[in-house]
């Protein structure tokens, strides 16, 4: 499993990887259980990680933080094209979900901006626009 790039001198223990990337060792072990990360080698039962695995850990973090991807989605992307699917389909679905979330957040921001701009002291009780939106929702149900 060790590549020519991975020599004993550039292998890191699970603890070193965790500290370096701000994770817990239990997170790394969980990722291994889920199949998204494998150690480069084991020495006396200790997990050792090379530069390729370190890069994979960083990518998993980036995808979780910025792409809001689940570990299952990340596993699919890391697996690439398989008999049961393609990573691009997973990314497309994630992007569609993000577009929906952006739409909801845009609506929420406009609503809050109206609240801030409303001259009433108690918009929830006194603003005709807010009252009309609430009444419209009641009628729609």
TrEMBL record:
InterPro entries found in the cross-reference section: DNA-bd_dom_put_sf, MerR-type_HTH_dom, MerR_fam
Transmembrane segments: none
SMART domains named in the record: HTH_MERR
The entry's keywords: DNA-binding, Repressor, Transcription, Transcription regulation
Pfam families: MerR_1
Molecular function terms from GO: DNA binding; DNA-binding transcription factor activity
Domain HTH merR-type per the UniProt entry, residue ranges: 11-80
Name of the protein in question: HTH merR-type domain-containing protein
Organism: Streptomyces fodineus
């Amino acid at each position: 499993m060790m590549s020519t790039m991975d020599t004993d001198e550039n292998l890191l223990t699970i603890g070193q990887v965790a500290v370096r990337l701000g994770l817990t060792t239990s997170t790394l072990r969980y990722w291994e259980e889920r199949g998204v990360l494998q150690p480069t080698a084991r020495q006396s039962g200790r997990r050792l990680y090379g530069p390729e695995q370190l890069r994979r850990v960083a990518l998993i973090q980036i995808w979780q933080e910025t792409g809001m991807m689940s570990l299952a989605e990340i596993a699919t992307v890391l697996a690439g094209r398989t008999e049961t699917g393609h990573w691009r389909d997973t990314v497309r679905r994630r992007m569609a979900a993000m577009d929906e979330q952006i739409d909801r957040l845009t609506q929420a921001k406009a609503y809050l901006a109206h609240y801030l701009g409303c001259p009433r002291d108690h918009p929830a009780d006194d603003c005709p626009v807010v009252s009309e939106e609430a009444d419209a929702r009641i009628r729609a149900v």
